[in-house]
Amino acid sequence: MNFKEKYGAWALITGGTSGIGAEIATQVAAKGLNIILVARRLNLLEESAKKLEDAHGVLVKIVQADLSKQEDITKVIAASNHLEIGLFVPCAAVETHGVTTNIPLEKELALIQLNITSVFTLTHYFAGRMVERGCGGVLLVSSIIGHMPNPYLSNYAGSKAYILNFGTSLHWEMKKKGVDVTVLSPGPTETPMMENSDIDMSKTPMTFQSPALVATYGIEALGKKAVVIPGFKNNMMVFMASRLVSTSTAIKMGGEMMEKVLNPRYL
Ligand SMILES: NC(=O)c1ccc[n+]([C@@H]2O[C@H](COP(=O)([O-])OP(=O)(O)OC[C@H]3O[C@@H](n4cnc5c(N)ncnc54)[C@H](OP(=O)(O)O)[C@@H]3O)[C@@H](O)[C@H]2O)c1
Predict the structure, then answer these.
(1) Which of 14, 18, 150 to mutate to test the pocket of ligand 1 (most atoms within 8 A of CB)?
(2) What is the pLDDT of residues 217-265, one digit of tens each?
(3) Which of 12, 13, 20 gets mutated to test ligand 1 (max ligand atoms within 8 A of its CB)?
(4) N or C end: fewer C-beta atoms under 10 angstroms in the chain?
(5) Whole-number Å distance between alpha carbons of 6 and 26
């Protein structure tokens, strides 16, 4: 079966208007799947939909929703429950940085609602429909940060560790039901999220990847791997921090690196 036969007719992509999500939407549309884009900014949703329709001749629906709000998560289900969603990609997420107790609680709780609760709720729903049909795919988006301790990104790191553990566990359950689940764990990627992160990546040994390359890694791993980390450097980083050194060393390395690269006003 080709990609479209396996994961069509519709792919629903949250955060599909920017960065990695936008690239996943483009590459999936190029394979002939119709797309549902979910994000908050209407102008970007409309622009992205037109681009995908013009370039790939697929149908594109947009759902304006703030997934850090429970009622908008329900809205996404209501807007798509009459369509056969064969591929679900919950890519929307936000990052907070700094000393956790300095970050307003509401901001941190909104992160948990978007990065964890919306992902779980929508995966529970869409994977459930896929199990009924005996086929489909879910591409979850974690981060290399989810594989290791990351001081000053604590809540974000925790949310990405949740996605990693949830997704790899779900991979096994769903495989038995004909549904593919893969976790994509990108390293630093050139997107608006990184541009707004107050982290000076030039002071780290890490290099940026393009969102297009990261998206390709994720799409190609679907149905083949439980987890995919794009690129050698990112794999080495994860191997070192999670396998080679002790947890206390990994915490120290992560903390000291962040103190070098994060804008000092957040320390
Ligand atoms: N960039 C990196 O270096 C990197 C590294 C590792 C992992 N990741 C992960 O990759 C994924 C995509 O990141 P990115 O860097 O591509 O992000 P991005 O360019 O900032 O795009 C985020 C997308 O999510 C949408 N979004 C944000 N808040 C939302 C909300 N409350 N409700 C609904 N949609 C919302 C945004 O649209 P609106 O603002 O219009 O809502 C946008 O479409 C995330 O899961 C991130 O954790 C990124």
Answers:
(1) 18
(2) 999 999 999 999 999 999 999 999 999 999 999 999 999 999 999 999 9
(3) 20
(4) N
(5) 18
Name residue, tokens 């290399």: 144
Q: What is the pTM of this model?
A: 0.98
Phi, then psi, of 180 in degrees rounded to 5: -85, 130
Structure token pair of residue 33: 């799947």
Alpha-carbon distance 138 to 81, whole Å?
16
Residue at 101: amino acid letter: T
pLDDT, tens only, 71-129: 999 999 999 999 999 999 999 999 999 999 999 999 999 999 999 999 999 999 999 99
Domains assigned to the chain: 3-266 (3.40.50.720)
